[in-house]
Amino acid sequence: MPRTASIALKSLLTFLLRGSLYFFCVLAFASLLNATGWHTSGVEIDNPSGAPFIITGVNWYGFETTA
Questions:
Q1: Does residue 38 sit in helix, strand or coil?
Q2: How many angstroms separate the CA atoms of 43 and 53, rounded?
Q3: Cα–Cα distance between 66 and 56 in angstroms, integer?
Q4: What is the SS3 assignment for 1-17?
Q5: pTM (2 decimals)?
Q6: Least-confidence region, from 8-12, 38-42, 59-63
Q7: Fewer C-beta neighbours within 10 Å, C or N terminus of the chain?
Q8: 6: exposed, middle or buried (C-beta count within 10 Å: 0-12, 13-18, 19+)?
Q9: Distances (CA, A) of 31 to 9, 24, 39, 55, 58
Q10: Through-space distance between the first and last CA atoms of the chain, rounded to whole angstroms
Q11: DSSP at 52
């Protein structure tokens, strides 16, 4: 096999391996997110039981200071 064909084959195999690894990592991460049950529905964040998540307070540390 000529040297350039060997380099091209090696590059192709490296590309396919990295792509497969990336795809596997994305699927694994997505399944972890689905395991928690938290999800979005339109503009709402829903908890695992399906009820909307309600933010009852916001804290902005240092907002009141003048410096």
A1: coil
A2: 11
A3: 26
A4: CCHHHHHHHHHHHHHHH
A5: 0.35
A6: 59-63
A7: C
A8: exposed
A9: 33, 11, 12, 26, 30
A10: 71
A11: B
Q: How far is CA 67 from the centre of its chain?
A: 38
- Tokens 């399906």 sit on residue: 50
**Calpha distance 62→12 (Å, rounded):** 53
By the 8 A CB rule, do 52 and 45 touch?
Answer: yes
**What's the mean per-residue pLDDT of the chain?**
74
Please give the full DSSP string across 54-66, using - where no structure is assigned.
-------TTTT--
Q: Is the model's pLDDT at 32 over the cut of 70?
A: no
Averaged pLDDT, 51-62: 83
Could you tell me the residue ranges of all domains in the chain? 3-36
